[in-house]
Write a sequence for this structure.
């Protein structure tokens, strides 16, 4: 048996109903569906925070670009996306 912890929380009624429906439609328990949702959320947030820390460390190390360089890069991306849509 895996190491688990009991967690109690309040959900808005609509969200609880959506959880119940999803669990029923996928033949899973509410616990399984909620655990998967929390796992995905936590992983996403951890990834976001890691990227923020990397960006801050890069900025602290002086690894930055000027506003003009950033705008030029955005324009390049927009032009590439426009070309891709035309294909």
């Amino acid at each position: 048996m895996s190491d688990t912890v009991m967690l109690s929380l309040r959900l808005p009624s609509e969200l609880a109903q959506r959880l119940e429906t999803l669990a029923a439609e996928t033949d899973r328990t509410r616990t399984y569906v909620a655990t998967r949702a929390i796992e995905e959320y936590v992983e996403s947030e951890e990834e976001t925070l890691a990227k923020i820390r990397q960006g801050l460390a890069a900025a602290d190390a002086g690894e930055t670009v000027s506003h003009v360089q950033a705008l030029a890069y955005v324009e390049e991306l927009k032009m590439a996306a426009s070309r891709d849509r035309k294909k």
In short: The two ends are 53 Å apart (CA to CA).
